[in-house]
């Protein structure tokens, strides 16, 4: 599956704190400063191909709060794998996970947590529609993986229910008509071989 999203990360770097008597509470910084500060090396574990939108400039946002909290946002298109169970096709419900975490740091270095708690971490567009599926929800949870040590992984599951009407019109009705038309051959006289 493929999704276009705004991927936002936030962390605290006390080295970037600035004075409390400053009139600024938040400092909007050029994204070119990202090369000079530490940032997490987040990667999508079940991602197959992803790209950052760069028209007309890189679609990134960097804000630094007075207390050193950094907000880093970017617009991504992510293609990820989704293991589907098609036993009940076309009346099936699928759960497509998106797993991400640190590529090189363990849990002792970087801990990933959902910012707004588990219920508000993923916001879907209110007018989003798909031709084949309805989105029932997007529950999230944390996991621990042991690759080169224990590392935290955030998982977002997109629960999809297939539209039966789409497949009824595009698959079942044409196949049923084809089978019914093939029965016509049994009612034609045996001697009319050309017609049969």
Automatic annotation (TrEMBL):
A cellular component term, taken from the record's GO annotations: membrane
Keywords (A to Z) from UniProt: Ion channel, Ion transport, Membrane, Transmembrane, Transmembrane helix, Transport
Subcellular localization, as worded in the UniProt entry: Membrane
InterPro entries, per database record: Neur_chan_lig-bd, Neur_chan_lig-bd_sf, Neur_channel, Neuro-gated_channel_TM_sf, Neuro_actylchol_rec, Neurotransmitter_ion_chnl_CS
Neurotransmitter-gated ion-channel ligand-binding domain segment(s): 1-164
Gene Ontology MF terms: extracellular ligand-gated monoatomic ion channel activity; transmembrane signaling receptor activity
TM ranges: 167-188
Topological type in the membrane: Multi-pass membrane protein
UniProt family annotation: Belongs to the ligand-gated ion channel (TC 1.A.9) family.
Protein name, as recorded: Neurotransmitter-gated ion-channel ligand-binding domain-containing protein
Species name: Capitella teleta
């Amino acid at each position: 599956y493929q999704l276009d999203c705004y991927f936002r990360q936030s962390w605290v770097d006390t080295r970037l704190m600035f004075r409390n008597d400053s009139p600024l509470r938040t400092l909007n910084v050029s994204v070119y400063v990202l090369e000079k500060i530490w940032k997490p090396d987040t990667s999508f574990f079940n991602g197959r191909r992803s790209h950052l939108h760069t028209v007309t400039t890189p679609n990134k946002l960097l804000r630094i709060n007075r207390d050193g909290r950094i907000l880093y946002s970017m617009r991504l298109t992510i293609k990820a794998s989704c293991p589907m169970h098609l036993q009940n096709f076309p009346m099936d419900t699928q759960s497509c996970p998106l797993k991400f975490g640190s590529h090189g740091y363990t849990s002792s270095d970087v801990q990933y947590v959902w910012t707004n708690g588990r219920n508000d971490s993923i916001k879907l567009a209110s007018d989003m529609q798909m031709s084949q599926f309805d989105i029932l929800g997007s529950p999230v949870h944390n996991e621990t993986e042991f690759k080169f040590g224990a590392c935290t992984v955030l998982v977002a599951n997109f629960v999809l229910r297939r539209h039966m009407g789409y497949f009824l019109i595009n698959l079942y009705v044409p196949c049923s008509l084809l089978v019914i038309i093939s029965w016509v051959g049994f009612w034609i006289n045996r001697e009319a071989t050309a017609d049969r």
